Amino acid sequence: MSALYWWLTLAVLLFCIGAFGVLVRRNVIVVVMCLELMLNAVNIALVAISNFRGGALGAGVLFSLFIITLAAAEVTVGLAIVIANYRNRRTVQTDQYNELKG
Q1: CATH among 1.10.630.10, 1.10.287.3510, 1.10.3720.10, 3.30.240.20 for 3-92
Q2: Whole-prediction pTM value?
Q3: What is the 3 state secondary structure string of the chain?
Q4: By the 8 A CB rule, do 42 and 67 touch?
Q5: What are the beta bridge partners of residue 27?
Q6: pLDDT for 7-56, tens place per residue?
């Protein structure tokens, strides 16, 4: 088996752990951390495929840098929302945020 198989297995495992955390956890901060874990799994897969496939030089790394930038923006906005809601409700549990609908 090639080394690509092991890198993709690692990426799938990390993505599944992150998805499980997003679906199960109630703490908003933990959910954001699990989303970041999912994005890092995608980064691993992109760089691994880019290194083993060939093609355009640096395409996987370029996509990874774009995802890292997007993840940083997501964390900034997400934590700003969490802090604003914590100031109003004094909780970071997702089941307490049902009044944000509408």
Answers
A1: 1.10.287.3510
A2: 0.79
A3: CCHHHHHHHHHHHHHHHHHHHHHHCCEHHHHHHHHHHHHHHHHHHHHHHHHHHCCCCCHHHHHHHHHHHHHHHHHHHHHHHHHHHHHHHCCCEHHHCHHHCC
A4: yes
A5: 93
A6: 999 999 999 999 999 999 888 888 888 999 998 999 898 888 888 877 67
In angstroms, the CA 100 to CA 33 distance is 21
Total residue length of the chain: 102
Provide the residue ranges of all domains of the chain, joining segments of one domain with +. 3-92
